Each structure stands twice: as C-alpha cells, then as structure tokens.
Amino acid sequence: MRIATQTDQNEKIAARSRSLQTVRDKLEAERREIGDELESNFQPREELAEGWQERDSPAERETREIEYLHRESRLNRFRQISAALERLESGSHGLCSECERRIEKKRLKNDPAVALCLRCQQAAESVLAI
Ligand SMILES: [Zn+2]
C-alpha cells in the first residue's frame, strides 16, 4: 500500500515536471522568435533620429511611430516572458506576483507568461483607466 502511494506520488511529480518542461519550451520558443525579430529590425538610435528629421511627411512619421510602438510592445512581451521563465526556475510560476494566490488554470493555459491572477489584473487595469 505504501509502495503504491509512493509510486502515485512519483508519477504526479513526473507529470508536473513534464508539463513545466512543455511550458518552458513554449516560452523559450516565443522569446527566441521575438529576439530574432527585434534583432533583424534593429536600427541604431542616431539613424532613427536622422530619419525623423529627413522624412517629415506626416504619413512617414506616423509609420515610424507605429513601428516604434510595435517594437515597444514586442520588447514588453520579451520582458514578460523572461520574467515567467525566471519564475519557472524559482518554482513560483503559476502564482500571482501580486497576491501570491494560484493563477486561474484557464488563464495560464491561454498564456503561460501571465504574472497576475484575474482579480489583480483587473485591479491593475482599473488603476490604469483612471
Ligand atoms: Zn493576484
């Protein structure tokens, strides 16, 4: 009886570590993809500044602004994934960074890089909306 329980326990641990490995692989793949994308679109700061001055048509400026915002959002995603990978290493992945409760399974499945539970996420968004 004790042996069976021990085996069940071991299987549970093994299954958990397999699923964490899957999450890690997924996050690392996405991070690599964003890293490559950011690197291939890399423009030195001075070049970017020159571009702003030379091309002063509003349409061109708008395009640059959109590119810049896109780049910012990809960088944020890159940081979010890096933080999630760190939480995986430290064993705190799946726990809300704010209240330390378990993050809803559905939420994590949808995006394994989320750092906040639904409640804390909503609270953060309502602060931003004010
Ligand atoms: Zn929370």
Please give a quick description of this structure:
This protein is mainly α and 130 residues long. Helix content is 77%, strand content 0%.
Q: Which percent range describes the beta-strand content?
A: under 5%
Structural domain count: 2
- Based on helices, strands and strand pairing, what is the structural class? mainly alpha
Span between termini:
59 Å
Radius of gyration: 21 Å
Secondary structure: helix percent:
over 70%
Q: Would you report the number of β strands?
A: 0
Q: What general form does the structure show?
A: elongated
* Sequence stretches where pLDDT stays below 50 over 5 or more residues: none
Number of helices: 5
Description of the structure:
This protein is mainly α and 130 residues long. It has two domains: 2-93; 96-130, no CATH class. 77% of the residues lie in helices and 0% in strands. The chain binds zinc ion. Residues 96, 98-99, 101, 116-117, 119-120 line the site of zinc ion.
List the helices and strands and how they pair.
Layout: H1 2-40, H2 45-54, H3 58-90, H4 105-110, H5 118-129
Helix pairs in contact: 1-3
The structure holds zinc ion.
Zinc ion (ZN) binds next to helix 5.
